[in-house]
């Protein structure tokens, strides 16, 4: 018991306290504490409600603060009766990231008997059932309805992300595939939760124990997976939001820290754990490949392992989970040849998995996973199993720049949208691989030619010869619609040679023949395909070529053999200034007013392969110019909208265009500059092909081929014109560029044979007459036949 003295001291202390803190003060302090608690609670409740409302308007699964445009290849078409195997179709679906499962989940397929059923990932495509019989499609069923034709979901290219509110954030190029809540692989989820948030499925958005532990142990981080999702979707790119305005006195990172708790709690209220996990795994940054950022585990799994997430081993899941917190660090080490850091991180994650889920993963399983080598493949750099996106980078750069008016608004509209382009994946893949092989084969030949020049020309550096690297570009257009079916801008190059402006050489000549055939006159007679031109006796006004003059022959032969004198004669027959202006409009060039413009070698004649190939559309379309188009349709949500290409423009006489097209068919005949094309392409006798070669004065080699439904343009050469490639040594468009076009035409026959079918349409104003080819006049007893426009036939032989 306390003594009397102790009791006395306590009494005195109580008396002093009552004197210093009277009861009225205690009551006031208690009221202040209650008010502060009430204010804090009210603030928390209001902030939480604001967060809930914000997430209701801006679902983290759909992104916010940004416009994300996803570009895709053209949707492949399936038709009843066409050749197609189940194995090929399944391989395509796996390339898309589909899983084989029978519950009709999005991005899945399953087989029953002879029928393959699939459920697309994108809402703008419908469920499809394909029945096979003897490696052909016997029946198509789209959303329960029998159809003769159906579309598959296309392969992805790149996503362009633009932050709409924060101008300090640059536009991003990313690869990202959204995965759904029912398609998250359990093993990958286990690895990610073990590495990032082991109590994810237990807490309500905030891992309080994890935060306390990290603070106590002076370790950073502690954000839950839900908080990380909010950071990547809600906070990134945000500007003038409610939390920024109310907490404007705090630094940006503090603003986020002060409110991400409420957003995490709100997200857990609005979304299931599986939905949160799927959204997180769809956006988490996981490094970059060739300048394209990889967002989400699908892109990362395909790039680093060449697999879909469902195909990953436990060790591979641990690699991806381990990379999340510092992907650029681990990738830089790997690219320096040091695997130790990533191996250590992977094994640490595996230990966490074993510790957190011992009933699911035994110690032996963990040790077996640790024993696996990394085996990173970096698929974008592979020449065999590359992701589809890597084939399209030069095309998609142009497609993103040339958005039509209907799509331009997507750049400023918050949310995700899909743009389906015209690019045919099979043709693009073939074109890319053929261009790579052609450049690889051409390089040693050019090196040998360089060394031979070095013997006689001391200005040629021997060291330069070994480093010379030729380049190749290829453009393929649908002749009737202008749709870009394939576009290769170069080999292992970020520079796009398909849009680079270079001297077109003789590939420009048909455009000077066109106005000459339409309304030109030569030596007092209408200029026709049968017009005889003699470099020895005929006079030219002004410029007169000195090389490849040719000999006395018809305009048809002159074009087939690419004689320079004949081309200049045609330009003058048409009216030089008028012809040059016509060619400039078609090819987006500004040639100088000289006869040399007809040879594509004068200043201002430079054009791009894309512009030149597009200009050739006037030939298979009887004078109608068809603009190149890059976009087929677009979708936002379930609605998919078709785009209407620019209407054709009649820029030349139909009869003249048809006649010049027929003259270009002689280019691939025995007397032309590309006599081997039909054999190299495996052309059928019924297939009509018109073409023109071009060989520059230094190091440019061109070839353009047309069928009634297809235009293929090829450029090859030395980008910097380091040495002159001699025509006499075989460095011509017919010998170098034409074989690449021929191989591509073989691929077209395999994948799109309809593009090689049909015949050039002969206008009613064109007639075919027998001629005396030695004189160029019409006669019933002629030794050849030629096409003429009405009222522009040469005089009959009896009148000469």
Question: Which tags fit this structure?
Answer:
800 residues, alpha+beta, Penicillin-binding protein 1b fold, Penicillin binding protein transpeptidase fold, eight-stranded mixed sheet, six-stranded mixed sheet, 32 strands
Give a written overview of the molecule:
With 800 residues, this protein is of the alpha+beta class. The strands form nine sheets. It has an eight-stranded mixed β-sheet with strand order 12-13-11-10-1-14-24-25. The protein has a six-stranded mixed β-sheet with strand order 3-4-5-6-7-8, covered by helices on one side. The longest helix has 35 residues, at 23-57. The protein has four domains: 19-57; 76-153, 2-Layer Sandwich (Penicillin-binding protein 1b fold), CATH 3.30.2060; 157-395, Orthogonal Bundle (Penicillin binding protein transpeptidase fold); 430-633 and 642-764, DD-peptidase/beta-lactamase superfamily (Beta-lactamase, 3-Layer(aba) Sandwich), CATH 3.40.710. The chain has 26 helices and 32 strands. Helix 11 (314-323) crosses helix 13 (340-356) and helix 19 (509-519) crosses helix 22 (576-587). The mean pLDDT is 87.
Average predicted local confidence, pLDDT: 87
CATH superfamily placement of the largest domain: DD-peptidase/beta-lactamase superfamily
Q: Tell me the number of helical segments per DSSP (H or I, 4 or more residues long).
A: 26
Which regions contain 5 or more consecutive residues with pLDDT less than 50?
none
Main sheet record? 8 strands, mixed
Query: What distance lies between the first and last C-alpha atoms, to the nearest angstrom?
Result: 148 Å
Q: How do the strands line up in the largest sheet?
A: 12-13-11-10-1-14-24-25
> Structural class, from secondary structure content?
alpha+beta
What's the number of domains? 4
Based on Cα principal axes, name the global outline.
Answer: elongated
The helicity comes to 25-40%
Total beta strands: 32
- For this structure, the CATH topology of the largest domain is Beta-lactamase
Strand content: 15-25%
> Architecture of the largest domain in CATH?
3-Layer(aba) Sandwich
Q: At the first level of CATH, what is the class of the largest domain?
A: Alpha Beta
Indicate the radius of gyration in whole angstroms: 35 Å
């Amino acid at each position: 018991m306390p003594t009397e003295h102790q009791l006395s001291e306590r009494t005195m202390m109580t008396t002093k306290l009552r004197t210093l803190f009277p009861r009225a003060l205690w009551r006031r302090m208690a009221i202040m504490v209650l008010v502060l608690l009430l204010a804090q609670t009210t603030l928390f409740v209001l902030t939480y409600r604001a967060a809930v409302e914000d997430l209701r308007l801006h679902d983290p699964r759909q992104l916010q603060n940004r416009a994300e445009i996803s570009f895709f290849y053209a949707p492949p078409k399936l038709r009843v009766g066409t050749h197609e195997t189940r194995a090929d179709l399944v391989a395509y679906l796996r390339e898309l990231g589909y899983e084989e499962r029978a519950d009709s989940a999005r991005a899945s397929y399953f087989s029953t008997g002879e029928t393959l059923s699939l459920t697309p990932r994108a809402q703008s495509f419908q469920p499809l059932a394909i029945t096979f019989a003897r490696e052909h499609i016997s029946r198509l069923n789209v959303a329960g309805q029998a159809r003769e034709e159906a579309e598959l979901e296309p392969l992805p290219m790149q996503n362009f992300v633009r932050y709409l509110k924060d101008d300090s954030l640059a536009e991003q190029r990313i690869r990202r595939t959204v995965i759904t809540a029912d398609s998250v692989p359990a093993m990958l989820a286990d690895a990610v939760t073990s590495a990032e948030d082991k109590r994810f499925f237990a807490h309500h958005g905030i891992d309080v124990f994890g935060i306390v532990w990290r603070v106590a142990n002076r370790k950073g981080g502690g954000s839950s997976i839900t908080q990380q999702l909010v950071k990547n979707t809600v906070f990134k790119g945000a500007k003038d939001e409610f939390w920024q305005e109310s907490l404007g006195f705090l630094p940006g990172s503090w603003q986020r820290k002060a409110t991400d708790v409420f957003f995490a709690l709100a997200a857990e209220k609005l979304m299931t754990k599986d939905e949160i996990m799927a959204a997180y795994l769809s956006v988490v940054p996981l490094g970059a490949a060739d300048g394209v950022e990889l967002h989400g585990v699908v892109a990362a799994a395909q790039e680093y392992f060449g697999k879909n997430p469902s195909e990953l081993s436990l060790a591979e899941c641990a690699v991806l989970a381990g990379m999340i917190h510092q992907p650029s660090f681990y990738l830089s080490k790997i690219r320096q040849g040091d695997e130790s850091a990533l191996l250590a991180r992977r094994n640490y994650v595996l230990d966490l998995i074993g510790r957190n889920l011992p009933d699911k993963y035994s110690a032996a399983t963990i040790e077996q996973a640790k024993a696996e080598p990394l085996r990173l493949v970096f698929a974008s750099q592979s020449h065999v199993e590359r992701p589809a996106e890597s084939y399209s980078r030069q095309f998609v750069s142009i497609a993103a720049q040339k958005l039509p008016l209907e799509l331009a608004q997507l750049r400023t509209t918050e949310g995700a949208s899909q743009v389906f382009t015209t690019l045919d994946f099979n043709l693009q893949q073939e074109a890319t691989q053929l261009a790579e092989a052609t450049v690889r084969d051409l390089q040693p030949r050019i090196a040998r030619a360089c060394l031979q020049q070095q013997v006689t020309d001391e200005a040629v550096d021997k060291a330069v010869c070994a480093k010379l690297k030729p380049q190749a570009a290829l453009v393929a257009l649908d002749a009737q619609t202008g749709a870009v079916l394939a576009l290769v801008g170069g080999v292992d190059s970020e520079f796009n040679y398909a849009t680079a402006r270079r001297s077109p050489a003789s590939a420009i000549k048909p455009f000077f023949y066109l106005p000459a055939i339409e309304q030109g006159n030569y030596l007092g007679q209408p200029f026709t395909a049968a017009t005889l031109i003699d470099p020895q006796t005929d006079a030219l006004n002004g410029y007169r070529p000195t090389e490849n003059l040719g000999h006395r022959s018809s305009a048809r032969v002159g074009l087939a053999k690419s004689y320079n004198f004949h081309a200049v004669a045609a330009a003058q027959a048409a009216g030089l200034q008028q012809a040059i202006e016509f060619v400039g409009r078609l090819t987006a060039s500004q040639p100088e007013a000289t006869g040399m413009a007809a040879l594509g070698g004068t200043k201002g004649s430079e054009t791009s392969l894309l512009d030149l190939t597009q200009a050739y559309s006037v030939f298979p379309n009887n004078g109608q110019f068809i603009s190149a188009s890059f976009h087929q349709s677009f979708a936002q949500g379930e609605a998919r909208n078709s785009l209407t290409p620019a209407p054709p423009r009649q820029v030349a006489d139909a009869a003249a265009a048809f006649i010049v097209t027929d003259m270009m068919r002689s280019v691939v005949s025995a007397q032309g500059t590309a006599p081997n094309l039909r054999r190299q392409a495996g052309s059928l006798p019924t297939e009509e092909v018109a073409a023109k070669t071009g060989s520059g004065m230094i190091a440019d080699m061109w070839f353009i081929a047309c069928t009634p439904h297809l235009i293929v343009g090829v450029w090859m050469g030395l980008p910097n014109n380091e040495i002159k490639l001699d025509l006499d040594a075989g460095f011509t468009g017919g010998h170098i560029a034409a074989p690449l076009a021929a191989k591509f035409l073989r691929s077209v026959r395999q994948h799109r044979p309809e593009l090689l079918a049909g015949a050039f349409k002969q206008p009613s104003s064109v007639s075919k007459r027998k001629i005396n080819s030695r004189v160029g006049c019409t006669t019933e007893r002629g030794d050849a036949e030629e096409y003429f426009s009405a009222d522009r036939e040469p005089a009959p032989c009896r009148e000469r």
